[in-house]
Design goal:
Elements (H helix, E strand, L loop, with lengths): L3 E2 L15 H4 L1 H4 L5 E2 L1 E2 L4 H18 L6 H11 L2 E2 L3 E3 L3 E3 L5 E3 L3 E3 L3 E4 L4 E3 L4 E2 L4 E3 L1 E2 L4 H5 L2 E4 L2 E3 L4 E2 L4 E2 L4 E2 L4 E2 L4 E2 L7 E4 L4 E5 L2 H5 E3 L2 E2 L8
Parallel strand pairs: 1-3, 4-7, 5-8, 6-9, 7-10, 8-11, 9-12, 10-15, 11-16, 12-17, 15-18, 16-19, 17-20, 19-21
Antiparallel strand pairs: 2-14, 13-14, 21-22, 23-24
Helix pairs in contact: 3-4
Length: 230
């Protein structure tokens, strides 16, 4: 993972001597190509950005439950894009934070982990249950390549009004379509279309979400009239 800290000169782009995170590593991380997944100790700006995210989330995770405004302010420092009415229960973990883009009306229960070595895009009205992992990073299966600490990253896209159940894992390169539900414990290895219930390991589409779900919210329990919409 890019969270490993060691002196790995292979990371630096020979054509860019600035050492800034966005140009030296984070931009390279977003290409989908293999690279040495370590942080260079001799790039102070890069290290500063890496540790800044960790320090901010350390403060976030130590807040009192009543300190909602403080947590919101910290998240606005962590994320480059963040909509309104965003609430994440601590503890929350991220590699960089600067690759996470969050829409409006987002709720994540405790234990959310984002391995954001590539971009993670989260739409509006998304709900995430406890202990979900969004992982953009992967490693080669070949043991000799993996021994070189080689890594690649692929972005994750989560559409609007998606609900991801507890302990689900979303793997690199996955897109989840609008209005879909991912069942608890699922391992999402490939794209999920819009408007479906999907679950399992590997996660697969079980059925479309439709009229039955407008009438029944749980087994044979009907949706009260006051909650129905046209």
């Amino acid at each position: 993972m890019a969270g490993n800290v060691r002196d790995a000169g292979k990371l630096r782009d020979a054509g860019d001597s600035q050492g800034a995170c966005e140009k030296s590593l984070l931009e390279q991380m977003k290409t989908g190509e293999l690279y040495v997944g370590t942080v260079e100790l001799d790039e102070p700006e890069l290290m500063q950005k890496f540790y800044r995210c960790k320090d901010l989330l350390y403060d976030f995770n130590l807040t009192r439950y009543s300190e909602l405004e403080k947590r919101t302010a910290i998240l606005r420092e962590v994320f480059p894009e963040m909509g309104e009415n965003v609430y994440i229960e601590p503890p929350f973990y991220a590699n960089w934070g600067c690759n996470v883009h969050v829409g409006n009306n987002f709720y994540a229960n405790f234990g959310l982990t984002v391995v954001d070595d590539a971009d993670i895009f989260i739409g509006n009205d998304v709900m995430i249950a406890p202990h979900v992992t969004l992982a953009t990073a992967g490693h080669p299966l070949d043991p000799d390549l993996r021994k070189q600490v080689l890594q690649f990253n692929m972005p994750i896209h989560i559409g609007n009004n998606v609900w991801i159940g507890a302990h689900a894992v979303v793997l690199p390169g996955v897109t989840i379509g609008d209005n879909s539900v991912i069942g608890a414990g699922s391992i999402v290895t490939k794209d999920i279309p819009a408007g479906v219930l999907a679950l399992g390991s590997p996660c697969h589409v079980v059925r479309e979400i439709g009229e039955h779900d407008r009438e029944f919210y749980y087994k044979e329990r009907r949706v009260p009239e006051r909650w129905r919409y046209s």
